[in-house]
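Teaching note: in complex prediction, the entire set of molecules is handled at once rather than each chain in isolation. The prompt given to students was simply: 'Predict the structure of this complex.' The entities are:
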Amino acid sequence: MSIRVRFAPSPTGFFHIGSARTALFNWLYARHHGGKFILRIEDTDRERNTDDALRVLLEGMRWLGLDWDEGPEAGGEYGPYFQSERNAIYDKHLQILRDKGLAYDHEGAVFFKVSGEPQVINDLVRGRVERKEEKDFVIYRSNGSPVFHFVNVVDDMTMGITDVIRGEDHLSNTSKHCELFKAFGVEPPRFGHIPLILKQQGPGKMSKRDAGSLIEEYDHRHFIPAAVRNYLALLGWSPKDNREILSAEELVSLFDLSGVTKNNAKFDERKLSFINAQYLHALPAAEYLELARSYLKKANWRDEETRSPDNKYLDEVLLLCQEKLHAVDSIPAFIDYFFVFDYQYAPKAVKKIMKKGDPVQRVREFVEAASQLEEWTEAALEKCITTLAEANGVGTGEYIHPCRLGVSGTNAGPGFYGLLVVLGKDRTLERLQRFVENPPVVVG
RNA sequence: GUCCCCUUCGUCUAGCCCGGCCUAGGACACCAGGUUUUCAUCCUGGCGACAGGGGUUCGAAUCCCCUAGGGGACGCCA
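The expected output is the structure of the full assembly:
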């Protein structure tokens, strides 16, 4: 029988990172085994704005590249895929239990009569787990609506779910679910309980309120979806061969529940950032430019620069800095000086550079030599600096450092010669002229 | 309180099932050098862990037991 798994989120208006990881593991499992990945919406809570909440969820899924074979917008033969539309199915199944004498009314609610037998599951992740369900539990509230455990089992059963992959927080619920499956005379599906994601500081699992816990945040910050997906895959799963940067195709072919860890994993935003940076550096130019520009526009960074779709200077600047960046949302701070003349000199850079040798004199010499240059290329500039350094018996750094400070106001940035080339001859000389005439002073 | 799950570097993990190849491997972070051009790039190196205690065994990170710690579930929430 071909594998059918489902991701069954409740639309809350947020797409939590833990849910996303559960969705990802289900998706990988389905794709790896050539099965079906079903999206089922547990929208029984009418209080929330379900339209909006659903949109957040679907957008998050798409952003991560998790496509579903059945569910909202995709349809399928096992619908409806919204719990709110399945009441007739639930009622019918309640009647089945009633007929078997396994459901009874008490204080207005309907209780399920447990067998009290130990329930054994051979969990795909954790191995044999045994637990006994001692007490009868409510399956229909006194207001007539079915509760989670009941609908969950009925849905899995009627949708032909073969494997239930979910968070470990459901492990203790599984005995209830097994009781129900058996009451219906149905063999329970296989279960795989994956570890939880713990908050990086303090005790407990990650919650909506923790920083970095929402997928939409990474979208807004223009993280690369493939990077987030890659990081999430590594939380609680390992390919066991020391590889970490893995494409969707590689993840699909390598993933299986046997590689899933039993212990909970702490969320580590630094590792996520690292992986995101790897993806950022590896991005093809066109894709990178599109991503960067869309972020700048969204962040309202210098409208006059981002307005035109072919601002060549902006593109050159962005490309020059690509390999240095950690994240897209750090671009504005990193490139701003390319676009203004009145940038400030960073105190710590001034302190570091202005104290050594005679920086103003070195810059003065460079301005003089560079203004004679006919070709403004990396090779020509390098030759120019090397020649000056040799002639004056000093290292090239004596020129490069103050010049960088002069044209950018900082001591960090892209490769020096590339920097000057992108800035162009006019901007470079103009900036250095200002530096010579009004050099920064060390304070403190 | 009851029940369930887990326990290798600060963090994510490999190794554990099938004990010896483990003086425990990789990655992030951190630190130090290098790239005689910066650094938020890149390269090299360093730091750093088998929770504790009992067994079993010639031999245990690997098997068993106990303790401790962490997490989760115990709702007419999902």
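Point out the following to students. Chain A has a mean pLDDT of 94. The longest strand of chain A covers residues 118-123.
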